[in-house]
């Protein structure tokens, strides 16, 4: 993890130097960077959902694992008291991913408006649709895990989480 942190710091420094030197990078560079950031966030969110599911299922739910795998899973598994914290982090990441999708939708709408004035406009909605579908798929997986863990989350946390889930889905549908 330290190696990854060091490499990340070096790459961020190089990115800052490039941006300082070339303030106006091509639009395709920014679009690709945005796509990679969303993809990474979505993968991290999917990993969180799998962690939550693994924490809920425990090693007994995986009979196909052999003994060394069970020992490894038991060593890396989080204690059950961390389930609410893990779910809250996952919901926070879901909201960040939602913001990225909504930002991209807003950019697409603005480009469509400018196209009325003669600006170039890429009408392909497939990447935006794929983002929305991927996010909604993860949304339903996470929502399912929260509903399964509702007894462990308590009477205070569950309504707040469900309200946040409803806000995420309604904002995606409305926009």
Shape: flat
Structural class: mainly alpha
Task: Determine the CATH superfamily.
Answer: STAT transcription factor, all-alpha domain
CATH topology: Glutathione S-transferase Yfyf (Class Pi), Chain A, domain 2
Beginning-to-end CA distance, first to last residue: 38 Å
Q: State the helicity in percent bands.
A: over 70%
Count of distinct structural domains: 1
Taking all Cα atoms into account, the compactness measure Rg is 20 Å
Keywords: SH2 domain
Organism: Sula dactylatra
GO molecular function: DNA-binding transcription factor activity
Protein name: STAT6 protein
Describe the protein.
The protein is an all-alpha fold. It has one domain: Up-down Bundle (Glutathione S-transferase Yfyf (Class Pi), Chain A, domain 2). Helix content is 81%, strand content 0%. It contains 6 helices and no strands. The chain has helices spanning 2-21, 27-57, 67-76, 83-115, 126-148, 150-174. Helix 2 packs antiparallel against helix 4, helix 4 runs antiparallel to helix 5 and helix 5 (126-148) packs antiparallel against helix 6. The chain is flat.
Q: What characteristics describe this protein?
A:
single chain; 175 residues; mainly alpha; Glutathione S-transferase Yfyf (Class Pi), Chain A, domain 2; STAT_TF_CC; STAT; STAT_TF_alpha; DNA-binding transcription factor activity
